[in-house]
Write a structure and sequence with these properties.
Strand content: 15-25%
CATH architecture of the largest domain: 3-Layer(aba) Sandwich
Radius of gyration: 24 Å
CATH superfamily of the largest domain: NAD(P)-binding Rossmann-like Domain
Mean pLDDT: 85
Helix content: 25-40%
Low-confidence stretches: 204-210, 212-239, 388-405
Distance between the termini: 26 Å
CATH topology of the largest domain: Rossmann fold
Number of domains: 3
């Protein structure tokens, strides 16, 4: 071990014998009582010394070996110690890629705060590189989500959309002005590649063949028959997807998603997250865990229960011509994309964000985010009403890590 105090947590003495690590209540930890010698020893925990050398220098401070071991144990238990060298072979290979690590140091620092155990942040960062996410839509919201996920280290980000980019698709975190008139799938592929911090390892398919290098990103065109204004959210996801993010340019397909479009994801157990903007209202969620949480079909049935006229109006909205440009404020679209990407990353890292089975909505101009739980509906064919809410289809996820404040 080469233990180091997590540098992302700022330290301050609360008094003569108590140290606080961290500023914000969510992750702040206090440690005490500490004498002067122990306080001096803390300065030695910078990741450059192994245990033998630490014990040797502790003796020079008149600190017994048992005292040092107990202190290190308390620090590790409180989530204050890191040790990148203990993160494993894949993480070590990533750590040696200086250019990639320089891009991702803020992300790694954040993971080290969220993940208490030593080396966990680097392990999570390495794990992201092997994950595959499919984003359905390359408008202001979808392209920005894809860009953030790629930049955050997700190694395989695929964007599906059809038609050619329009001027109103352009966004600072999404498609650039130069992409106007270009096929959306081509522009999205270039965006994902440009956003990636470095090339990801090649993916090995289940048949043993090697897929293309994912660090370049991949993007697909819309299915046959999807026009320039359509958003392909119904084609079956390919095997191996960790998550599908449904962010179509038509906000109605997120606000009132077509249940049948998610049928293949429900059948294959593929988690999927909805995000978009509908008439100046931002929507993030629900994150659907097939068989465990309410899905698009459950949402549709609950709405019909509350408002018998909803199906009639929805049929008219879906069948009507959409000649007008969507009401999609750039600031709101960017906020939705950032929040959706953060929720997606939390899920990929092994947690269940608050969008799990819940829709979050905020409307301009006040932007008051409100939650709307989507409970499983007994009449929905997804089967979630009889399943365990809050678990992945593959058998659950680790409990969220907590730190004492």
């Amino acid at each position: 071990m080469y233990p180091m105090l997590k540098p992302a947590l700022r330290r301050a003495w609360r008094g003569r014998n108590t140290v606080q690590f961290g500023v914000t209540p969510a992750h702040a930890v206090t440690l005490g009582p500490l004498d002067i010698a122990t306080g001096s020893f803390l300065e030695l925990l910078d990741g450059t010394r192994g245990l033998p050398l630490l014990h040797e220098e502790a003796r020079a401070l008149d600190l017994p070996e048992r005292h040092v071991d107990l202190l290190l144990g308390r620090l590790a238990e409180a989530g204050l110690l890191d040790d990148p060298r203990s993160a494993g072979a894949e993480a070590e290979a990533l750590r040696r890629q200086a250019e990639v690590m320089d891009r991702q140091r803020p992300d790694l620092a954040s993971l080290s705060v969220v993940r208490p155990e030593p080396g966990a942040g680097l392990r999570r960062m390495a794990a992201r590189r092997a994950m595959a996410v499919q984003v359905r839509g390359a408008g202001r919201v979808g392209a920005s989500i894809a860009s953030v996920l790629s930049g955050a280290g997700v190694g395989h980000v695929e964007v599906l959309d059809g038609g050619r980019a329009e001027p109103w698709d352009v966004a600072p975190a999404g498609l650039p002005p130069a992409s106007v008139g270009e096929r959306r799938d081509v522009a999205a592929r270039r965006l994902v590649r440009r956003s990636a911090p470095g090339p990801a390892p090649r993916r090995v398919r289940t048949d043993g063949t090697v897929a293309g290098r994912a660090g370049t990103g991949t993007a697909g065109a819309a299915p046959a028959g999807a026009g320039a204004g359509a958003d392909p959210v119904g084609s079956a996801g390919r095997p191996g997807l960790s998550l599908v993010v449904v962010a179509p340019r038509d906000g109605l397909a997120v606000y009132a998603p077509v249940a049948d479009a998610a049928g293949s994801w429900i059948a294959s157990g593929t988690p999927h997250l909805y995000a978009g903007v509908m008439e100046a209202t931002g929507v993030v969620g629900p994150l659907v865990l097939p068989g465990g949480t309410g899905c698009a079909g459950c949402l549709q049935l609950h709405r019909a229960d509350r408002d018998p006229q909803w199906p009639r109006m929805l049929a008219q909205w879906r069948s009507g011509r959409r000649a007008a440009v969507q009401a999609c404020d750039l600031g709101l679209a960017t906020a939705v994309a950032g929040l959706a990407a953060a929720h997606a990353l939390a899920f990929l890292d092994g947690d269940l964000p608050v969008s799990t089975g819940v829709r979050w909505e905020a409307a301009l101009p006040l932007l008051d985010w409100r939650s709307d739980p989507i409970d499983p509906h007994a009449d929905c064919s997804c089967g979630a009403a009889g399943g365990a809410k809050g678990e992945r289809a593959s058998g659950g996820v680790p409990a969220q890590d907590t730190m004492a404040g």
